[in-house]
Amino acid sequence: MIRKPLLAACVAGLLALTAACGSGDGGGNESGETALTYLVFETPSLDAKFWDASIAAATAQTPGVKINKIVAPSTDRDGYAKQLQQSGQFPDLLQSITPSNFVGAGLLKPYDKTWIDANFLLPSANSLKGEVYIPPTNSQIVPQVYYNKKLFAQAGIAAAPKTWAEFLDACAKLKAKNINPIELGGADPFAASMPLVGIISADILGKNKNWLQDRYADKVKFADQDVVTAVQKYRTLVSSGYFDKGALGVKYADSITRFTSGKSAMYPMGSWFLGSVPKDTADDFGSFPWPTDDGSVVVPFVGGGSMAISAKAKDTALAEKFGQAWSLNPANLKALIETDGAFPMLKGKTLDDYGVTVTQVFKDSYAYVGQDNNKVNAIGWATNDDALPPGLNDAFYAAAQALFSKDDVAGEMKKLDDAWKTAVQ
């Protein structure tokens, strides 16, 4: 699972503890089992029934373990995990957190490398300084550009654009037909940032995969001219009227509905959107990578995964066995594939092995994962060594929203550099 804001977050205030929540001090019980706490999150698709079934299946393969489920009260799993840690209740197992926010404090235990290498297509997708703290069970592309084939046809657009010039031409043709070219859920910061994620991933990281490492080394900056020039493309889209004027007031959930109902022709979004494609009109939708100047394919890639293990768990070996069993269960990935648009990354399996029913646009999008193309770590979404410093995601989102209504690209990029300096001090 990818760390992302989810459609219809967990019900506010929900904190379901199936048993006392301890960080491992509550170890054994009368039956001789070791009790481990497991932080999860709920959504309409990944509901209590899903988690209970997945826990039961993994428990059956892990003799001697008893799992006490904790449900995060919001989508901010990292923030909640930190609250629990501060109160001495850091969970033994933590689903879909950002490891880089916890590794520095020695809170997480890495998985066995031999097991990781043996079971996953891209073993290093989630690697932090050579260690893997969350098994890379699935992946997503953040963003792809989804498009409505019927609206493209109405505007006389014969094929999905590959170059930036073709993309602008498509936008102009759509606008000329009174079709809103690009949907944007600008009221939700992460959704507002999608065009910026695409632009920087394609134009900057696509030319220098090590850009974020260079930024950590202070060799490059957001205020550098090449970044400013790239981000100016976003202002071009805004000033040309290729987004709805009220896009900053559109919520993420509403942006999905607007796009799938034909109110906009294109929608830059993470591939989890594929779980929202209406089955009865799925053939009306296609996807393409964010366009580059020369038409080369750059795929902003994110390795997702399952659970992290607390280094302070009562029995770290038992916790790892549970995590391994959960991570390799095709039934867990089936739910993620069909409802969350996750691309499975287990070795030796095809989509048929998961028993899933997926759309053609899912298959076409998934194809980019296996192709030999220029994959980069999507800025702001990677959980490996290219993860942004704490707090930078919020600064990045703020810049995206600000640039919808102001021209000062250089000024906003300088703010990101200032925020970076503060974050790494």
UniProtKB/TrEMBL annotation:
UniProt-listed SUPFAM superfamilies: Periplasmic binding protein-like II
Coiled-coil intervals: none
Keywords: Signal
InterPro entries (UniProt xref): Bact_solute-bd_prot1, SBP
Signal peptide positions (record): 1-22
Descriptive protein name: Carbohydrate ABC transporter substrate-binding protein (CUT1 family)
Source species of the chain: Asanoa ferruginea
Source lineage: Bacteria, Bacillati, Actinomycetota, Actinomycetes, Micromonosporales
